[in-house]
Structures are given as structure tokens and as C-alpha cells.
């Protein structure tokens, strides 16, 4: 394998790693929802059209395992669960912005084609 | 729905649109492969570890439908099929770069956790 091919495969591996962690329809929207102040499960669920509770639970667990959000038990009566974006999760801003702007441009392109 | 909620839902819709078009494990790697000079099906296939021909065919069709690559029939003996990234497809650079750099950082973070 040439140096160039090795470099190329490292590049696509990094991109595939990112897609594994934050890819799909729901992960970044969930992080953005928590980031915009929706701390409780139902608040997050209500803010994202068409997400089911089963999917939201699964994705929250995945995001927690990947250190992007924290699940906090608030000692109250009754006990409350609140989610928060980690400092590390805030770093996703550098991805969310270009994804958003590209999506807008693509919509115009595809509608205008 | 408040203005803020509407703005938020537009934002996540744009991100979901982008993920629909370029999400998953293979689409950006395929575009990068074609962009780096792999024009023929087998060249692209050989450059991306673990991709199957069935998946590559499906993804190439999807990328063509979304105006990101072109499929060109070269009148030769025998006829050849060559792929190329469209100018529009080149615009994905603004997404591929942050995805690559985030993936590198995440690997260090997860290994170091």
C-alpha cells in the first residue's frame, strides 16, 4: 500500500468513526435539543418531530457511552432524570453548522433541479 | 409553536436532510475516492476497505441521483464507465474536513477514557 493510499484509508476511517458516533437521523438533533435547554426525556422527545420513545432511549444511551451527554439523577421528590451536553459534546458545533448549511443548500438545489 | 421552536425544527430538518444524502458509512468515502482519482468501479471498490460491490452500486446510484457524482459512458472498445465528482459534490469538502478532524479527536478521547 502506498503512503498516499494509507493516508486515504486513515482519512475515510476517521470519517467512518465520526459517522458511527453521530451519524443517522437523530443523534445530532438530540444533542442540539439538550443544548437548547430541553433537559427532560419528554422535553427532548417533544422537540424532535417523529422520534419514538424507544429510539430516543437507545440514542441517549449511545450518546452517553460516547461521552457526548450526561444523564444526571436529581435527588428530589420524585427523583428526576436530567440530561446535559458535556463540554466534549459541545465540540460537535464544528460539525452541526456545516451539516445545517449544506442541508439548506441541497434542498434548494434538489428543488430547483 | 414559538418562533424559537420553529427555528430549531428547521435547523434539525436541514441536518437530517444532509444525513439522508451523505450519511452512513460509505457515501463520503466513495466521493473522496472518486475525487482522489479512482474513476472506475473496481478502483473505487479496491480503495475502500470492506465495501461490497452490491453496496457500492447502490450508493453510487444514490449519489448520482443527488447530483454529487456523474456516471459517464466512455465510447471505447470495450465501452467504459467512469465516475466523476460534480462541482456541487466538491462542496462536500466543507463537511468532510470537520468529520475527519472530529473522528481523529474522538478516537483519542475514547481510547484515553
From TrEMBL, chains A, B:
Keywords: DNA-binding, Transcription, Transcription regulation. SUPFAM superfamilies: Winged helix' DNA-binding domain. The keyword Phosphoprotein does not apply. Coiled coil: none annotated. It comes from the Bacteria. Residues 13-111 form the HTH hxlR-type domain. PANTHER family: TRANSCRIPTIONAL REGULATOR, MARR FAMILY. This is MarR family transcriptional regulator. It comes from Neptunitalea lumnitzerae.
Amino acid at each position: 500500500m502506498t503512503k498516499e493510499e494509507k493516508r486515504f484509508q486513515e482519512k475515510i476511517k476517521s470519517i467512518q468513526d465520526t459517522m458511527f458516533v453521530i451519524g443517522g437521523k437523530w443523534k445530532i438533533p438530540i444533542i442540539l435539543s439538550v443544548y437548547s435547554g430541553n433537559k427532560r426525556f419528554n422535553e427532548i422527545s417533544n422537540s424532535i418531530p417523529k422520534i419514538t420513545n424507544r429510539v430516543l432511549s437507545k440514542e441517549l444511551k449511545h450518546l452517553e457511552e460516547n461521552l457526548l451527554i450526561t444523564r444526571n439523577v436529581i435527588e428530589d421528590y420524585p427523583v428526576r432524570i436530567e440530561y446535559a451536553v458535556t463540554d466534549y459534546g459541545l465540540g460537535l458545533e464544528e460539525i452541526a453548522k456545516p451539516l445545517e448549511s449544506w442541508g439548506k443548500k441541497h434542498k434548494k438545489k434538489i428543488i430547483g433541479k
